[in-house]
Amino acid sequence: MVRPRTLGAALALVALLAGAGCGSRLPESDFERRATGAAPDGGGPPVRVGVLTSATSPVGGSAFTGPRDGARAYFDALNARGGVDGRKVEVHTCDDGGSGVGNNDCVHKLLDEKKVVALVATTVLDYAGAPRVSGAGVPDIGGQPIGAAYDTYPHLYGIYGSSAPRDGEPGWDGKLYGGTEVYRYFKREHGARTAAVVSYNQAASAAYARLVKRGLEREGYEVVTEQVDFALPNFRAAAADLKDRGADLVFDAMDTHGNARLCAAMDDVGAEVTAKVTNVQNWSSSVAEDYKDAPRCRNALWATGSSRNYEDTGHPAVRAFRAGMEKAGKGAGSLSQWQLEGWAAALWFTDAARSCTASGGDVTRACVDRFMSRGEPYDADGLLLPVTYEKSAEPPTSRRTCVSVARWKDDEGWVTQGDMNRTCFDVPQLSYQP
Predict the structure, then answer these.
(1) May I ask which residue range the UniProt record assigns to the signal sequence (predicted)?
(2) Residue 324 region, left (φ>0) first, then alpha (ψ -120 to 50), else beta?
(3) Tens of pLDDT along 187-199?
């Protein structure tokens, strides 16, 4: 199921898109990159994978590229070690321009022309081609659930897992479910009691704000709601009100630019909070620059997600990720949690491919899909909270859910808060319309 903290990133992007406007498709590019060098002796033809990304879109050129960059860095490192049992992985990427038409074109190109075995780390604004991917039996591994596709179609395996039937309809009777673990965390660990929710006066942003409000109220919070005009937002007024109301926490349904302006307004009016909570999409080293005008609020930023902090250099899988990103030209100052999740998605595919060769077979779509659908938890060498794909006939009413938490400190970057595999809660699951 799509967790609310993931949905927040999605709806913030939708909100931004509504203001940007969209009509004709943006120019499409195919940044095809073939593996260089011949396969080692004993190898075979390359294993082809596709990485589908809205690299150019109305929400900005870098909004979706993190998972793609992480996946490509992993495959580069894998190929340098000999690939999958001597077979190089040949990566074909396609930019859908952030449109449904472009997405369908990319799906056709990758599936029918390039004949990829699988898609990896899909991160797109409009996954219009999802029914075609599913119908062709092509496993889509470790994609970001920006829409409801990974809770709708078989053969699609998003980075966070799902227990939905995935029979062509989203979730259960068109409804998805998410838990209140983030709100429980701040209540239990930091004694928070009052929370503000800031949104735009735009349908998707307001809808997500209502979902956050429901979850907070279910956890016993007093909730302060603030709505600003998308075109001419008065962030100072919102910041002053949440200060007067004594908010401990601030959640939002806005894009990064809106968040940065809200933070600056909070600093201007002297609003101090326990945490300004953001999501995995904003969990990156660009915080120092994005929030340069809000030092106090910046150091109150907390991020929650379902993957291990990319700053956790004491963990061997994180060290491998960072070494791979450095070789790919992404130093410590240009890292993000979405890159780490793209790396984890590529590792997930590689483990699936190795399961095929281990049994003496070829790396085929069907074989990779069998590994993905086997129902066993997967954690990408500890980079992910255990991910499971299973099919439950009834929607969940409650669930034990763990959460990865980090906070920003100027002198340290993102600092992990506790063990993500032990920061777990039995929480209710709330329904929402995708």
Answers:
(1) 1-20
(2) alpha
(3) 999 999 999 999 9
